[in-house]
Structure formats: C-alpha cells, structure tokens
Amino acid sequence: MEFERDFTMTIGGLGVAGATTFPVVNPATEAVIAQAPDCSRGQLDEAVAAARAAFPAWRARPVDERRQYLHAISARLFENLDGLKRLLTLEQGKPFGDAEFEVGGAGMFVQGTATLTIPETVNEDSAERRSITRHVPIGVVGAISPWNFPVILAFFKVGPALLAGNTVILKPSPFTPLTTLKIGELLRDVLPPGVLNIVSGGDQLGPWITEHPGIDKVSFTGSTATGKRVMQSAAGNLKRVTLELGGNDAAIVLPDVDVNKVAPDLFWAAFRNNGQICIASKRMYIHKDVYEPLKEAIVDYAKTVKVGDGSEQGTQIGPVQNQQQYRRVLELIEDSKQSGHKFLLGGDALEGPGYFVPVTILDNPPEESRIVREEQFGPILPLLKVDSVEEAVARANASDYGLGGSVWSADPDKALAIGEQLETGTVWINETQHLTPLAPFGGHKQSGVGTENGVDGLLEYTNVQTVVVRKA
Ligand code: NAD
C-alpha cells in the first residue's frame, strides 16, 4: 500500500481535515514526514455529536453482531499490515519487525476480545421475584493513547468499548497520530458512521476530551502525572475512568539462574522498544552470588545489539521516540554522571540526526538515585546488587508505582512464592510483558485505576444494572 501524505480525521464516518495542521517528525531523521490535522473544539463537538447519535443503534445490536464487527476490524488491520507497519516505523521509530508485531498484535487482541462474554448474574429466582444483574454500555468513550505503542494500546480500548456497546472517540498522541488516523480511514466502510471517531491535535485536545460533558467515560494510557490531571478533569460530569499509567517494574534475579541463558531475556525485558514500555524492567535486583557474571553476560549481549533507523535492515532498537523524551533520557544520564555512577556501557548521545541514545547500563547505583527511583522510559538500565531475596522484595515494593514485576529462577515454584509478595498488577516468572486479550492488566498504587483486557477490562466499559421483576 502506498500512503499519500494527507491524513484526515474520521468524524461521523467521513474524512475531515483539521482546522489547521501540525507537523509529525520521523525520530530517526528529525525530518517532517507529514502534517496531521489539528482538531478544533468545534470539530470535537461534532465528533461527540456523531458518537452520541450512533450510540442508540449500536447498543441495540445483538452482541454477536458487534462481535462480527470486531472480527471485521481485525481482518482490515491484517489486510493492511505491511503498509501500516511501514507508517508506524516512520512516525514511531521502532524497527519494522516490532511495528509488524504491534499492528498484528492489535488485530490479534481485537479478535481475542471478540470471544469474551459479558456475564449476567441471577441474584434471585423465586416464586415471588426474579432479580438479575447485567452490564449495560456507558455511552460515549473518550480513548486517549500514548506514543510508545500507539496502535495496540488504542485497540486495547476500542475493542472492548465497542463490544460492550459504546461508541468511541479516539485520540492518539500528537507525536504518533498518523497510523491511527490511517486506520480510521481504513475502517470507514467497516463500521457504521459515528461508532468510531478519530481526532488528532495538540496539547489542548486531551483536556477538551476529559472535560467534555458529552463524553461519559475516559480510558487513558499515559504517564502518572497526566493520569492525575485526567482524573481531576473527568470529575466534572463524573466520567468513569480507566487509567493505565507509568511503571517502574523490578526484575528480581535469584542466584540459581543459568547466567548465559537469562542474560538475553533480561536484556530485552529492559530494552525492547528502546525501554519505552510501561512494563519494561526498569530496575534489576540481582543476587550478589550471581551479580558479577550476570552483569558481564548482559553487557556482552548488549554489545551485539544494533541501534539504528528502524526502517534499515538489521536494526533491533530504534531512536527514542521524540525530542522531549530524548532530552529527559539524556538528563537522567547526566544526573548519573554528576553523581559519579559507574557506567558499564553507553552514556553519550550518538551523533545526530535522530534521537539516538546508545544502550546504557549502570553498575549498582544507589537505591535513592534518580535512575532507580524514577521511570526512565528509555534505553538506560540500573543493575542493582542485593544481599538477599528479602532485600530485593523490600526494595522492589518501596515505590509509588505498582504496574508489573518479574522473578527469575531455575525453580519456578520458589520464584512464584517470591513473586506473590510483589505489590503490582502483574507478576511474571521467568519472563515479562506477556499480555493476552483474555487476562486483565492494570496497575496498583499510582500505576493506574482499573484494568484493561479480559472480562474485567471489558466490564470497565459497562455500568452495572440490576433488574428486579416481581412475579404475579
Ligand atoms: P502522556 O501522559 O504525556 O500522554 C498520553 C496521552 O495523553 C497523549 O495522547 C497526550 O496527548 C494526552 N494528554 C496529555 N496531556 C493531557 C491532559 N491534560 N488531558 C488529557 N490528555 C492528555 O504519556 P506519554 O509520554 O505519551 O506516554 C508515556 C507514559 O505512558 C509512560 O509513563 C508509560 O509508562 C505510560 N504507559 C502506560 C501504559 C500502561 O498500560 N500502564 C502503557 C504504555 C505507556
């Protein structure tokens, strides 16, 4: 598929140009690759009106019909996998293989969501009365997505919201709007008009959505700081909120691991998608008995990994996605330099153009350092030496974040007993980041409110309704 350079929003099933436009940059070259529509307040009102108008008929359709629509969405994504993957690499920076995995993953998640069933509970069925509790759609959902996985994270929201009978207004990040806009265009003849509206814009558009009285729920994925603003703003009309926020996941490595076997897995747990994953391992607590050999094995493996333009053959890690995040990552590296932390690898920005930072690994910086306490969301990893498993668990849990965590051991049962002590929404043993459309995913503490995926995630797009019938 060839992509033309004019991208439009989807409002009421039609392609709509922005009142103005804003530039979108390829992070590997810093070249402007397209102009994206900048949605005006009036256009957002039109999108809300279209979604509200489409809601009664959409909710009235039998759920099995809506399932078929989800399968049609998934099919359209797979049919256009190649073009969408190329566009995603161009705007996001990730290598083609990762971009294909993301777009295909979105298709797979929508398919999986289509198999879920909304439960109904019979509370009483007696001679006098029948009482059931069912789950009804909420109305219009505002879905707001970040720049690290613009496509799959959008469909974590769109699939369940539509299946449950809601209509949607989706807003991608201004750093990565293009693939989402293109998908909107590809779905215009798949869904009834108004069921899925896609708008793009600058920093003002998110707040307009969260405060809009015509939107009934906000499903947000992004940083914890923004999540707090979303929750405050949503209070205006008591919107329901699902917040998938930041993380500072710990990986705990026991002394019985096979060093050479786990080193590549641990490396990718931290550096996949250039470390720009909410559930990347961002602190690695390694038992002292295995610290030195594992440190060397991770660094040796890291030296074999190719950083470069995601559209070039053989690239395994692309650039940091945008200039703001690039500066933040360099600032954290500078802080570690100023603090005298020992660098095992990396530490200096690569020559431009492009927001390239080399894989950077730190040797046992203090627990209170910024690189340990803060979410780095980039290619820097602190390796941390611990004297005991108890110490590792205590340090892992001493965080305001509670998204995910992992334990690595030759003995999965032993690792599980340790993993169960983690105060996080997901615990993985001997792997990380495995998500499915069938299992709920969400954060404890300041990593979020509510969940996505699985039946629990689906129910976040519903209101509970108890219906009581008195029998004659
Ligand atoms: P961000 O919070 O800056 O932006 C996320 C989205 O919110 C963007 O679309 C942005 O335009 C919009 N936005 C910004 N300000 C807003 C406001 N006041 N009101 C409403 N919307 C607003 O996050 P980001 O930098 O795009 O993404 C990185 C962060 O997202 C990291 O902290 C990462 O951990 C987190 N994240 C979490 C998950 C998860 O599932 N828990 C998944 C991916 C990323």
From TrEMBL:
PROSITE patterns: ALDEHYDE_DEHYDR_CYS, ALDEHYDE_DEHYDR_GLU. The active site is at residue 244. It comes from the Bacteria. GO terms for molecular function: oxidoreductase activity, acting on the aldehyde or oxo group of donors, NAD or NADP as acceptor. Keywords: Oxidoreductase. Residues 20-467 form the Aldehyde dehydrogenase domain. SUPFAM superfamilies: ALDH-like. Coiled coil: none annotated. Pfam families: Aldedh (PF00171). Belongs to the aldehyde dehydrogenase family. This is Aldehyde dehydrogenase. The lineage of its organism: Bacteria, Pseudomonadati, Pseudomonadota, Alphaproteobacteria, Rhodospirillales.
